Amino acid sequence: xxxxxxxxxxxxxxxxxxxxxxxxxxxxxxxxxxxxxxxxxxxxxxxxxxxxxxxxxxxxxxxxxxxxxxxxxxxxxxxxxxxxxxxxxxxxxxxxxxxxxxxxxxxxxxxxxxxxxxxxxxxxxxxxxxxxxxxxxxxxxxxxxxxxxxxxxxxxxxxxxxxxxxxxxxxxxxxxxxxxxxxxxxxxxxxxxxxxxxxxxxxxxxxxxxxxxxxxxxxxxxxxxxxxxxxxxxxxxxxxxxxxxxxxxxxxxxxxxxxxxxxxxxxxxxxxxxxxxxxxxxxxxxxxxxxxxxx
Length: 295
Hints:
Elements: H1 2-27, H2 36-52, H3 57-79, H4 84-104, H5 106-109, H6 131-154, H7 157-167, H8 169-174, H9 179-205, H10 215-228, H11 233-249, H12 253-256, H13 262-283
Helix pairs in contact: 1-6, 1-9, 1-10, 1-11, 2-3, 2-4, 2-9, 3-9, 7-9, 10-11
């Protein structure tokens, strides 16, 4: 039971990083990004491939984050001058292109077979601390640093500018500022966090394949920030915990509903999360942490 709870905590911490990135992009800047999982995949595959080449985890993780951010730059330059709804469609297409590339480029990514044997972090730590607890501790530290950085950003002139873009982009343009430049920077920062999340995910799971990076992952993160509270760091944390509670708690429904098969249970779990999202939208539109402009 202890190992299961630690595993859930690690996956939750990975999802918190993804939720923080999306909070920065949508909650604070108004960028509707439906392709967040694409940056997650870039980070995971970059970390896995560099690990195969014998890279130390620290530079490999940094490279994974930088590559994910770099992948966001051309997407932003090409697409962020589009209307919000068009960018949402383009970003979704971007994530599918990433998944198709890792599926088809078998010489590099092994295609649908995936990349197995990704080394675990802190193997042979030798200090009496279990490997999984060490990973969780580092993830919590990284999440703490990300939260601290986001709070500093939102209180800075840059943060006030992106909030102004979110609230009234036309007014920002009238002041002679270029919203597209700020949006590209925010998109890259959110992708950086997603890249780090992907690197942790790859090393913890030990195996990655294209079917782990489907659009459903992006929409789960959207569910988390909506249920927690859009535009709040605390909302990203609370929403992720609620999402994981629904996803993992519903695994035990078979004890109550034994007539539902394992395959059907996957659909039931999604239905429960969807119902929760509808109820939050109707009765708590500001999320569990309430609607606010600042974190």
